[in-house]
Amino acid sequence: VGGGRAVFWARPREEEMRVAMAPAATRRGPRGRTLARLVTALALLGSARPTSAQDANATNATNATASVNVTMAPPPPAQPSPPPAEATVAPPPPPARPSMDELKATAARRVLDIPRFFKTEDECPEELLAPPSVVAAPDRRFLLPPGRTWGPLSFEPAAVTDEDFTRDDLPEPERYLEELVVDFALVAAPNASNLTSADVSLMVPVSAEETDAEGGGEATAETTRAVAAKSYIRVLPARSGAPSVVDETTTPYLAIDRLLAAFEDDAITTTANAASVAAILTPDAPGTYVVLITAVDACNATSHAFVNVTAMCSHVPLPAVKRESIGAAIWNQRDALKHADEAHPLGWWAPRVLDGSGTEAVDANEGDYRAHLEWLDAEIWAGNVAPLAVSNATEPWDAATPLRSSPFSSWIWWNAAPRWTAGQNEADGFLYRWTMTSAPLGSNAYRRLFRDSNATTTSTEDVDAGVSVTKSGAVVVHASAPESGETPFVDDAATATATFAPDVVGSYGFRLDVSNVCHAASMAFEASFECNAEPRWVESEIRAVSRDEKEKACLARQTVAARVEDDDG
Known about the structure:
16% of the residues lie in helices and 28% in strands. The strands form 9 sheets. Strands 11-8-5-13-14-2-19 form a 7-stranded mixed beta sheet. A 4-stranded antiparallel beta sheet has the order 3-12-6-7, with no helix packed on it. The protein has helices spanning 5-21, 30-47, 52-56, 100-112, 251-254, 271-274, 333-336, 366-380, 444-450, 459-464, and strands at 133-136, 140-144, 153-155, 157-161, 180-188, 201-210, 220-227, 232-235, 238-239, 242-246, 267-269, 278-281, 287-296, 302-313, 315-318, 327-330, 352-355, 360-363, 412-413, 431-438, 468-469, 475-476, 490-491, 497-500, 506-515, 520-530, 536-544, 558-565. Helix 1 (5-21) packs across helix 2 (30-47). By secondary structure, it is α+β, with helices and mostly antiparallel strands.
């Protein structure tokens, strides 16, 4: 009727009905059915769209050809989602700590790739295979005395052996066909430590055969110690009669060109000296360090051992500031006159003594060590450790027992550790540091040190800081320091006892930090410098002074007298 969409949709509907009512033989093929279904879907979609025109024609339900002109608004363009705020982004979880089995597998793969003398499959039958054996040295515990800092610690195997070096059931030269590669890697350290395997160095005993100058004496082996260039050593057959000297004529030694650049800096030793090789590292945090020793032989058989060394400080600082250093100091005119200067002609406050000499050195105890062992068991060993051995214990376990006198674990008093040269207090071995943390608005310390970091202070407060008035109207003289004045500071801030002189009336914040190489603790406090009682007007009078009659003055001389007191006397 109107050429609208309703007409376009109505005709296919009629066509679809005719097709549906037609005999099966005359119906259209699949293409006609598909088209009919598509048209039906379009018609249903069009009828499901509510429009104002459709609402207006709802009463004319019999007019199947009514025209409806619908103009649909285009959808809004897709907007990219804004990035989430940084505060809402959760940090990634820390990487999972590998298990000791994973660490052993990683070490084995690394060591197996090192070129060395290899045996054939026929030379490595399972029934005759003699794998290498690495035995770890017993765990050791070091207690760092006051005034000492971290020094080098050694991680050694108790034994490195392989029966193939001493096989007597094979003829020479096959009797001693073997080469071991023994690798050392740091696999566990305290959370606060930044050490890695790159910080571990190897000290290797090196022996050489020497004879006397005339050549007629017996050969002797001279052993020295050298730092290995790599993280592993090679163990090769020894000379006959000189168990600590490498035999450079054996098949394992000649299997690779030891003069090549890749091998010229290898550390080579024998089984007699292999157990004397030590991995050296210097701790940087208290706790337990674990070095994994991995040995692989010419048949790719491996052996592992863990060497554990614990280092802790003998004492923990507990900061304390004496009462006289904390709280308010009230202006005393008599004492203030003793500290008068050009800037303060009426006197000034005496420097406040900041006294931290009451700081205590608390003994590290068995409770601290047991807590560390629990962390070690859960985080490092994942429960795969033997229970803590309690040796020579005649009393029940007590968490308060100092480590230095503990019967439950043997500790080595680490007197060989180097002296700490950080300027520590000789009396207790602690490092003291005093810091001013806040100051009144009128102080030059606030203007120059704290204004930018104090976001809550407005510029109006800065301006008003120049004048301070009490509730009764008295003006505080030294509420603001001249901007040309010096910045107050803590004198002798790196000592147990320091001093501080204010530049204005008000409260100053301080923090005392006390530390050693293991622990740090702080104490914050305030010290105030306050005015005394406000002056109070007591009485005044004005009286005339008697004058000589000879003086012909127009007005009599007047005297004004006043008396002022304060509540402080």
